[in-house]
Amino acid sequence: MSGPLLKLEGVEKSFGTKQVLRGVDLEVARGQSLVVIGGSGSGKSVMLKNALGLMTPDKGRILFDGEDVTNATGKARERMRARIGMLFQSGALFDSLTVWENVAFRLINTEGTKRKDAKERAIETLKKVRLGSDVAGLYPAEISGGMQKRVSLARSIISEPDLIFFDEPTTGLDPITADAINDLIVEMARGLGAAAVSITHDMASARKIADEIAMLFEGRIIWRGKAADVMNSGNAYVDQFVHGRAEGPIQPAI
Amino acid sequence: MANPLQLVGRITLGLFAEIGRLAVFAGRVKIAAFTPRWYGGEILRQMVRIGFYSLPVVGLAAVFIGAALALNIYEGGSRYGAEQFVPNIVVLGISRELGAVITGLMLAGRVSAGIAAEIGAMRVTEQIDALETLSASPYRYLYAPRFIAALATLPLLVMAANIIGVMGGWLVSVYGLGFDSTVYLRNTVDFITRNDIIVGLIKAVLFGGIIAIMGCYQGDRSQAGATGVGRAATHSMVGAAVLVLAFNYVLSTLFVEIGV
């Protein structure tokens, strides 16, 4: 099917009297890597959760592969999620399961793959993110933060999704590990031919993994362009953000 | 300063809203528990955690309550020359009331608060969001196994508490109050009826449901941070304990009314 793989149309979301999203319009094409930047509290995570169906928008529509999934439930939601991977900011690995059981979770619990076969595929996928089979039997608490991000990345790609969301993929990592994670994100997304939507305020990460960058400010997309143009966007808000200046139209969140 | 009527109204509306949310949550857990798909491994794991690991604490509580009950009945009975009724009242009190109530209260603390803390931590670390993105319903994967395990293991724990509680009374009566062991046990067995046991087991099933639902509900609604998770654990324990006591009274009244 032609057309964007993911489309958000006028998405609005409030919590009580606080309006977080004020009409977000966004399109992601197949195979495209889009990074959404924005300051703390700008609504990036809320936008992502609405796109994933973890929250329901107050207004607007979300279309996945042409199908309106705004209020999808049951099988329709499962069909959508079967084609989506997600790397959470915290990794969100299940504490009570080993590394390989985390990676193979979807295979065992949703797709009904036998544990032995699922373990083999999990170990193969761990190798793709540069983790050896020696970590497969460990629990998440027994590995480092960088390794947890890799395991979470392996979990998000094991079913070869069409679209992968990355929520602050490099937060909390040292610069070298962060760069390695960025390389893996690019490699995995391109290797699968998947579209990627990442949210971050790490500009080094954004420039490395993005084809295009969009900026979310006060609940709206205020700029979108090629990753190469972001440092010279001509938009005062984007300029202030990407150059990390306290002075400018955006008030620091303190 | 707020108008007192407004304040009362706001509290009342908040209470009804909370009851409504809890009822909807409980309904969804029940649907997940009694319709496929079931996660057998998770159910077994929870049965071990909720049932087997609670046995020591339930047993200890039951033996001391049984012993104290025997002492007090002896003390009270001796005022009217009715000491011989100690075994009868101990077994009646434990099988119809105390076995189930002790187990319910101990598990409100040990299990309900534990479930709330575990699920609350999963909520705030996005593990429950991760489950949903992996097409696994938290109702089926997390809440239903705990609910089923609590329904299945509470009656077994109550049976154990009944036996251990009666033995606590027997120990004190035989070794402290001079009762004959054989006579004590014969009086116990002759006095208890099948209905007395069934009453305790019906309560156990209901208490199991309350304990699991309260733990899951408070954990699911947990706010971010250590304080939020701690508050969820406290609320689940207090809520489960109060509901156990309230429903115990309701059921006791019902059983007395219908002559069971």
Tell me what you see in this structure.
The complex is a heterodimer of chains A (254) and B (260). Chain A is an alpha/beta fold and 254 residues long. Chain A has a domain at 1-72 and 197-254: 3-Layer(aba) Sandwich (Rossmann fold). In chain A, 34% of the residues lie in helices and 24% in strands. Chain A is built from nine helices and ten strands. Chain B is an all-alpha fold and 260 residues long. Chain B has one domain (28-255). Chain B has helices at 4-34, 40-50, 55-78, 86-124, 127-133, 138-175, 181-191, 194-220, 225-257. In chain B, α2 packs parallel to α6, α4 packs across α7 (181-191) and α4 packs antiparallel against α9 (225-257). The longest helix of chain B is centred in the middle third of the chain and has 39 residues, at 86-124. Chain B starts with a helix and ends with a helix. The model of chain B has no long low-confidence stretch (mean pLDDT 96). The interface between A and B is medium-sized, with 22 and 15 residues.
